[in-house]
Amino acid sequence: MNTTLARGAAKRGATGAEGTVGFSVSYRLILACSIWLVMGVLSLAYAKFEGGNNTVEGMPTLAVDEPVTWFEVLAQPPKAKPQRIHLTKLASANPAVTTKTVSKADLLNSRWAQINEKMEGYLADPQHCLNTLGTCKDPVFNQWVGLMKSAEKLRKARRLPVINRGINATLSYTLDRQNWGVTDYWASPEEALTRRRGDCEDYAILKYWSLALLGFDRDDMEVVAVFDQRTKQYHAILRIKQAGATYILDNRTARIRLPQDLPFYKTVFTTSEGADFTVASNFRTLSSLVDIATSGSKQDN
What we know:
- It contains eleven helices and seven strands.
- The chain is α+β, with helices and mostly antiparallel strands.
- The chain has a domain at 104-289: C8orf32 fold, CATH 3.10.620.
- Helix content is 48%, strand content 12%.
- The strands form two sheets. Strands 5-4-3-6-7 form a five-stranded antiparallel beta sheet.
């Protein structure tokens, strides 16, 4: 009998313990949910209170977004990503926006045509001193004519070094920025001789016309803009074909050079063929071919 009573007491004790544990878990869960709910309500009330007190007397009320609960956030549709507007579409949508690009080669060709027109105007007059190689009414040409008269006495092959040295000595090297106030300006022979100053292309242009007046075929000569890979600078020379060979007249030297002597000169522009931008693009921006003077920017005297 004692054994039976003991088993009954043990069974009641186990049942009581299980009931206590179940009550404890339920109580904690209910308490946690209540605390979470109370905190949510307090947060919502505080946010509304702060929003309402955000107005300063005499100042307009700022537009403030109302607090959004977590279930409202989930219910909202996803925001659409902003569209990217491509520049090409923007330009086509606005036909009033137009871009006009003028090639540097076009500017150089235009200036070269102006110089040729000016010189051919002189040569159209059979009495002009450049045709007769006599005394000029304009003293600007007299020293130049004297140089050509000295070269005329020599055989044709010997005229090249005389003209190269003579023109190198006639002009004093001056940057166009100092001489003309622009980055690059191709001066006519008259302009260069009037100032007795010029940069590399002015020497080349004056040599071109000197040799043309001495009977060299203009189709065999060209003023060439090059990129010097040694100095990383742009430069200009006169290139001439004579008796099956090509010669270079350069204001940097009194000697007549051959193309193989100057492999570091890479052609950028020629007056006969225009611009070779395939070559130029391998280097940097054509800085010396910017601000070329075109019609109306400079007038021959």
